[in-house]
Amino acid sequence: MESIQGKHFSITDPQGVSTVIYRVNKTEKEFLNEYPKFTVERLVSAEELKGNLKKKTFFIDEPNYEEQLIILSFAGDKVVVNIGILEDNKVRISKKPIPIKFDTLYSEKQGIYKEFKYTPNLRKANINNRSRNNRRNKA
């Protein structure tokens, strides 16, 4: 069995919810030309059932003084995205998670979202375009 040297913390998931947590890693300066500025690493976890609740213990191997965390809680057709910080021996989690439904985009500001896809030649093509004849007649 693999030995982990570091810290751990636990959360409790209600029935029907499954939480995963990622650690945010900053890439060192000498590797920035070849790799992204940040990467994420999924934390190893262990589960323990307690009635209808699921206690999950997450482990951070070789933690820094302050670790940034991304917390994803999956339930049915939605995901709740949250952030947290592991500092010393305390985990602090934001008080305002962002709910996301799989069929919508969430934003605190109202806006218009257009559906588009990229074609193999990397040009943007709107999915809901009018035909070319309609555009020429209206111009």
Q: Which short descriptors sum up this protein?
A:
11 strands, six-stranded antiparallel beta sheet, globular, three-stranded antiparallel beta sheet, single chain
Percent strand equals over 45%
- Average predicted local confidence, pLDDT: 77
CATH class of the domain at 6-102: Mainly Beta
Provide the succession of SSEs: EEEEEEEEEEEH
Question: How big is the Rg?
Answer: 21 Å
Biggest sheet, open or closed, and with what strands and sense?
Answer: 6 strands, antiparallel
The proportion of residues forming helix, as a percent range, comes to: under 10%
Q: What structural class results from the helix and strand content?
A: mainly beta
Q: If helices are DSSP runs of H or I spanning 4 or more residues, what is the number of helices?
A: 1
Q: In angstroms, what separates the terminal alpha carbons?
A: 70 Å
Shape descriptor reads globular
Description of the molecule:
This protein has 139 residues and is mainly β. The chain has a domain at 6-102: Sandwich (Immunoglobulin-like). Helix content is 5%, strand content 53%. The chain has one helix and eleven strands. It has one helix spanning 132-138; strands at residues 6-13, 17-26, 38-42, 44-50, 53-61, 66-75, 78-87, 90-93, 98-101, 116-118, 124-126. Strands 2, 3, 6, 7, 8 and 9 form a six-stranded antiparallel β-sheet that branches. A three-stranded antiparallel β-sheet has the order 1-5-4, with no helix packed on it. The longest helix is centred in the last third of the chain and has 7 residues, at 132-138. The chain is globular. Mean pLDDT is 77; it is low at 124-139.
